[in-house]
Design a protein that fits this description.
- The chain is mainly alpha-helical.
- 58% of the residues lie in helices and 0% in strands.
- The longest helix has 18 residues.
- The termini are far apart.
Length: 145
């Protein structure tokens, strides 16, 4: 119980991080499309989307991805910078603001999350999932099982 309370409690640093992410979101939301692209995913920019995804939100997934690509890499214990639900929400909102109206940034986020969470070996198809309801009768009524 103490671990849970310590984990959920927001520290002053978390409050500041949340505030900074919210200010960034507001600034990005009034920025032009070329500025969003430069900030988000352009090579000569700060690569804010890359940093948000791989450092602030999903560093362990990034580490596992790197370990899959290069098996010689040592496994580290990386903690995300955003550790509370409030800071995670602020980071996701900033990602959303960077992607709003900018297909290049959205494409970067889609490709990054696909790379992080889906491997080519275990792609699932919709027909591989069992039905959550009973199969339909040819007359259209549910059949009790």
């Amino acid at each position: 119980k103490q671990w849970y309370q310590r984990r959920v409690a927001i520290t002053a640093g978390e409050i500041l991080l949340k505030g900074h992410l919210q200010i960034c979101r507001e600034l990005v939301s009034i920025s032009s499309l070329p500025t969003k692209l430069l900030l988000g995913s352009q090579d000569n920019g700060p690569l804010l989307l890359h940093s948000l995804l791989f450092n602030y939100l999903f560093p362990a997934s990034k580490m596992l991805l790197d370990q899959r690509k290069f098996p010689d890499i040592e496994i580290r214990d990386d903690l995300p910078i955003c550790q509370t639900p409030q800071t995670q929400e602020a980071a996701f909102n900033l990602i959303g603001a960077l992607c709003k109206g900018c297909l290049e940034n959205l494409g970067f986020v889609v490709n990054s999350t696909k790379e992080l969470f889906y491997s080519e070996q275990n792609l699932l198809n919709s027909w591989e999932f069992p039905r959550s309801i009973h199969p339909r009768n040819p007359k259209g009524w549910l059949v009790p099982s």
